[in-house]
Amino acid sequence: MNTQLLQKSYEYYVIVSALVEHFPKKDRHALGIRIENATLCLIEEILRAEQAPDVLRDHILLEASVKNAMIKLLVRIAQEKKLIAATNYFRLSGMSEEMGKMIGGWRKSLRS
Protein backbone atom coordinates (compact mmCIF):
# COMPACT_ATOMS: atom_id res chain seq x y z
CA MET A 1 0.00 0.00 0.00
CA ASN A 2 1.33 3.42 -0.96
CA THR A 3 0.21 5.43 2.06
CA GLN A 4 2.70 8.27 1.48
CA LEU A 5 1.11 9.05 -1.87
CA LEU A 6 -2.36 8.84 -0.37
CA GLN A 7 -1.34 11.15 2.49
CA LYS A 8 0.24 13.65 0.08
CA SER A 9 -2.87 13.73 -2.11
CA TYR A 10 -5.05 14.17 0.97
CA GLU A 11 -2.91 17.13 2.13
CA TYR A 12 -3.15 18.57 -1.38
CA TYR A 13 -6.95 18.37 -1.27
CA VAL A 14 -7.10 20.07 2.13
CA ILE A 15 -5.00 22.98 0.84
CA VAL A 16 -6.90 23.27 -2.45
CA SER A 17 -10.33 23.19 -0.81
CA ALA A 18 -9.30 25.97 1.59
CA LEU A 19 -8.04 28.10 -1.31
CA VAL A 20 -11.13 27.50 -3.45
CA GLU A 21 -13.35 28.82 -0.63
CA HIS A 22 -11.83 32.27 -1.27
CA PHE A 23 -12.37 32.27 -5.04
CA PRO A 24 -15.00 34.71 -6.33
CA LYS A 25 -18.37 32.98 -6.66
CA LYS A 26 -18.19 32.71 -10.46
CA ASP A 27 -14.77 31.08 -10.39
CA ARG A 28 -15.50 28.96 -7.33
CA HIS A 29 -18.44 27.31 -9.09
CA ALA A 30 -16.52 26.75 -12.32
CA LEU A 31 -12.76 26.39 -11.97
CA GLY A 32 -12.74 25.78 -8.22
CA ILE A 33 -15.16 22.87 -8.39
CA ARG A 34 -13.16 21.35 -11.27
CA ILE A 35 -9.93 21.52 -9.25
CA GLU A 36 -11.56 20.00 -6.15
CA ASN A 37 -13.28 17.23 -8.12
CA ALA A 38 -10.12 16.37 -10.04
CA THR A 39 -8.19 16.15 -6.77
CA LEU A 40 -10.84 13.87 -5.28
CA CYS A 41 -10.68 11.72 -8.43
CA LEU A 42 -6.90 11.48 -8.02
CA ILE A 43 -7.38 10.23 -4.46
CA GLU A 44 -9.92 7.72 -5.75
CA GLU A 45 -7.48 6.48 -8.43
CA ILE A 46 -4.78 6.00 -5.80
CA LEU A 47 -7.16 4.00 -3.62
CA ARG A 48 -8.23 1.93 -6.64
CA ALA A 49 -4.59 1.22 -7.49
CA GLU A 50 -3.90 0.09 -3.93
CA GLN A 51 -6.78 -2.38 -4.10
CA ALA A 52 -6.40 -3.54 -7.71
CA PRO A 53 -4.71 -6.73 -8.84
CA ASP A 54 -1.26 -6.24 -10.37
CA VAL A 55 -2.51 -6.66 -13.95
CA LEU A 56 -4.80 -3.62 -13.61
CA ARG A 57 -2.63 -1.46 -11.37
CA ASP A 58 -0.44 0.06 -14.11
CA HIS A 59 -3.47 1.25 -16.11
CA ILE A 60 -5.05 2.80 -13.02
CA LEU A 61 -1.80 4.54 -12.15
CA LEU A 62 -1.62 5.91 -15.70
CA GLU A 63 -5.08 7.40 -15.14
CA ALA A 64 -3.87 8.87 -11.85
CA SER A 65 -0.88 10.40 -13.64
CA VAL A 66 -3.14 12.02 -16.23
CA LYS A 67 -5.42 13.31 -13.47
CA ASN A 68 -2.41 14.79 -11.68
CA ALA A 69 -1.34 16.57 -14.89
CA MET A 70 -4.87 17.95 -15.30
CA ILE A 71 -4.85 19.27 -11.74
CA LYS A 72 -1.51 20.99 -12.36
CA LEU A 73 -2.96 22.70 -15.42
CA LEU A 74 -6.13 23.81 -13.62
CA VAL A 75 -4.12 25.21 -10.71
CA ARG A 76 -1.89 27.05 -13.16
CA ILE A 77 -4.95 28.61 -14.79
CA ALA A 78 -6.20 29.67 -11.35
CA GLN A 79 -2.84 31.27 -10.58
CA GLU A 80 -2.77 33.09 -13.93
CA LYS A 81 -6.27 34.42 -13.21
CA LYS A 82 -4.88 35.70 -9.87
CA LEU A 83 -7.17 33.39 -7.89
CA ILE A 84 -4.22 31.71 -6.17
CA ALA A 85 -1.24 33.62 -4.81
CA ALA A 86 2.15 32.80 -6.26
CA THR A 87 3.39 31.32 -2.98
CA ASN A 88 0.45 28.92 -2.82
CA TYR A 89 0.88 28.09 -6.49
CA PHE A 90 4.53 27.15 -6.01
CA ARG A 91 3.65 25.07 -2.97
CA LEU A 92 0.94 23.21 -4.88
CA SER A 93 3.20 22.80 -7.91
CA GLY A 94 5.88 21.22 -5.75
CA MET A 95 3.36 18.85 -4.22
CA SER A 96 2.04 17.92 -7.68
CA GLU A 97 5.56 17.24 -8.91
CA GLU A 98 6.24 15.05 -5.89
CA MET A 99 3.00 13.12 -6.38
CA GLY A 100 3.85 12.67 -10.06
CA LYS A 101 7.23 11.22 -9.14
CA MET A 102 5.61 8.89 -6.62
CA ILE A 103 3.11 7.66 -9.20
CA GLY A 104 5.87 7.24 -11.77
CA GLY A 105 8.04 5.35 -9.30
CA TRP A 106 5.15 3.07 -8.41
CA ARG A 107 4.53 2.35 -12.10
CA LYS A 108 8.21 1.68 -12.65
CA SER A 109 8.33 -0.76 -9.73
CA LEU A 110 5.45 -2.71 -11.28
CA ARG A 111 7.44 -3.27 -14.47
CA SER A 112 10.46 -4.77 -12.74
Keywords for this entry:
88% helix; de novo design (two linked rop proteins); 4 helices
How much helix is in the residues? over 70%
When the domains are counted, the total is: 1
How much is the radius of gyration in Å?
Answer: 14 Å
The strand count comes to: 0
**Unreliable residue runs:** none
Q: SSE order, as H and E?
A: HHHH
CATH topology name, in short, is de novo design (two linked rop proteins)
Structural class: mainly alpha
Mean pLDDT: 95
Strand content: under 5%
Main sheet? none
Instruction: Sum up the overall morphology in one term.
Output: elongated
Taking the alpha carbons of the first and last residues, their distance comes to 17 Å
Per DSSP, the total helix count is 4
CATH architecture: Up-down Bundle
Short structural description:
With 112 residues, the chain is an all-alpha fold.
Notes on the structure:
The structure is a single chain. The chain has four helices and no strands. Helix content is 88%, strand content 0%. The mean pLDDT is 95.
Write the layout of secondary structure elements.
Elements: H1 3-20, H2 25-51, H3 54-80, H4 86-111
Helix pairs in contact: 1-2, 1-4, 2-3, 3-4
